[in-house]
């Protein structure tokens, strides 16, 4: 039997974790996962992520990724607070998931005190941030699902691969992004998260549910665009 490279095994594991095959296909959370599989795979199979996970890059590349994600999460978490009274946003919003503080600590360890100047948002990141700033509750739920459920599902896999490739220590500055100290048992949490999405979807029309799927696809596309720009030799902010 052929053994896949570890980074390809990780991709399969991530897909299986997010798709959660134990869930009934009639449930909206299951439909959402199934109908965004193609976009999910496009993001994970991008050349930048494949090279990063396989150890073909260096720790600076991981810092560059973190330097873009901190802008995304800052925007998403600010929007979540702005939408606090929206029932759809409230269905998934949870401070225990927030990643900005962890990313800031990682970047301090990876890039030093000047990390903010070193990691200005790329063009694709600015476009993503602009999209997030305009989200309503439906859109916020979709982007929240793409980012946080993916992080919670695959974070330990990514942390292991990055640790092995670049010498960072899981759970310590440099890899805190993938560490969720406030969530002791990820699987029950993810099960509950999907139930909350299902319950929220029951309050929507078919058009509303379709809008969530479309926005989740867009969220994956925004992430893929960032990975594509990070892979480019000109993938740096203006003036760098």
From TrEMBL:
Heme b binds at residues 40, 145, 194. The keyword Metal-binding applies. InterPro entries: Haem_Oase, Haem_Oase-like, Haem_Oase-like_multi-hlx. It comes from the Bacteria. GO terms for biological process: heme catabolic process; heme oxidation; response to oxidative stress. The keyword Metal-binding applies. Gene3D superfamilies: Heme oxygenase-like (1.20.910.10). One of its GO terms (molecular function) is heme binding. Keywords: Heme, Iron, Metal-binding. Transmembrane segments: none annotated. This is Heme oxygenase. It comes from Bogoriella caseilytica.
